[in-house]
Amino acid sequence: MIDWDVAVNTGVRLVRPGPQVDLSDARRAVAQLRELSGVAAGHVRDFTGMNPLEPSGPAVIVDRPGWIRANVDGFRVVLEPVLEQMAEERLNNGTAANLTSAVGSRITGVQLGAVLAYLAGKVLGQYELFLPPDPDGHAPTGRLTLVAPNIVNTERELDVDSRDFRLWVCLHEETHRMQFTATPWLRSHVQELMRELLLSSEMDATDLIGRLRAAGEAVADAMRGGDANLITAFQSPEQSEIMDRITAVMSLAEGHGDYVMDAVGPEVVPSVERIRARFQKRRETANPLDRIMRQLLGMDLKMRQYEEGAAFVGAVVAEVGMAEFNKVWTSRETLPTLTEIRDPQAWIDRVVRTAAITE
Q1: Measuring CA to CA, how many Å separate 345 from each of 74, 280, 305?
Q2: pLDDT in tens, 57-94
Q3: Residue 266's CB: how many other CB atoms inside 10 A?
Q4: What is the DSSP letter of 137?
Q5: ∠135-136-139 over CA atoms, to 5°?
Q6: DSSP character at residue 237
């Protein structure tokens, strides 16, 4: 259903080159990013009180094509088992079979590659949850990746201190690494939610036409300055419910990263206020094409996840403290729902207060 090689080749061919950097400066940037990822890990551990249950080395530093290749590898790990199951279940379904044949794996690969080429110029770093197995067949638990050209380009555009900015970025990304290395069950939970979402995508021809029409309306709305996007346009009611659960987890993760980054920042990043102000202004003043693309791809939804998640973490920590907040990582049942993300007191009453009464 997806030609992965075509996806990689398309993405690498379409991605814009990074900023011009002297070879010696590039090497220094890579070395410093590796160093600062370790420094940031110590700050995150001390501030959150969380402890990784596995050793973690320095971040992996990549360029834009390297980020594309890594993400295609991750997609393969998550999607291939699901696509194989879907193919088996739909083997005798004429509509689905014809649809798959019409679209074609190569076209799907081109589409995926084009989206990754766009995103490859935007992402500063990420914690890769899903990696191919090693030569012994063991699946790695995750890897922290920093996209050096994008970090260098952003710090230049913002005109901020490079070391401060790099440490600031590392604080956010190392928080993500801590979330998943200190909470081993969280990775499998996210993967199961994604699998559930993908397997709920069964639709007949009438559904498909309706969703394509909704997608067209979403594009038109985005062009007019509205807030529609392609993600919600293609969702069924069942998928919307699953997506709410995924959004709750991602809002927690992203908001926690932002909260830690901004809480630790004033102590270790001297120019953090200047960085945050300029970074936020940059987000708000995107050019019209960028604004439309960000909206259609759901990147604006992600920004709301940062904001709502950070507000949730801040409210809970202010009310009950960091140690009580960390109960959020205890199990799937203690994760907040999307409603609780927007109503932190409801989570406190359900998880913290209830636990105190039981104890």
Answers
A1: 36, 28, 18
A2: 789 999 999 999 999 998 888 877 777 766 666 555 55
A3: 10
A4: S
A5: 90
A6: H
Percentages helix, strand, coil for the chain (3-state, rounded to 5) are 75, 5, 25
Question: 207-221, 262-276, 315-329: which has the highest mean pLDDT?
Answer: 315-329
> What DSSP letter does each residue of 246-275 carry, written as one string?
HHHHHHHHHHHHHHHHHHHHHHH-TTHHHH
- The DSSP secondary structure of 285-336, one letter per residue, reads T--HHHHHHHHHTTHHHHHHHHHHHHHHHHHHHHHH-HHHHGGGGS-GGGSP
Write the Ramachandran bin of 142: left for phi over 0, alpha for psi from -120 to 50, otherwise beta: left
Three-class secondary structure of residue 283 per DSSP: helix
Q: In the Cβ-directed half-sphere of 148, how many Cα atoms lie within 13 Å?
A: 21
pLDDT in tens, 143-185: 899 999 999 999 999 999 999 999 999 999 999 999 999 998 9
CA nearest neighbour of 86 among 196, 231, 241: 196
Q: What pLDDT is attached to residue 226?
A: 46
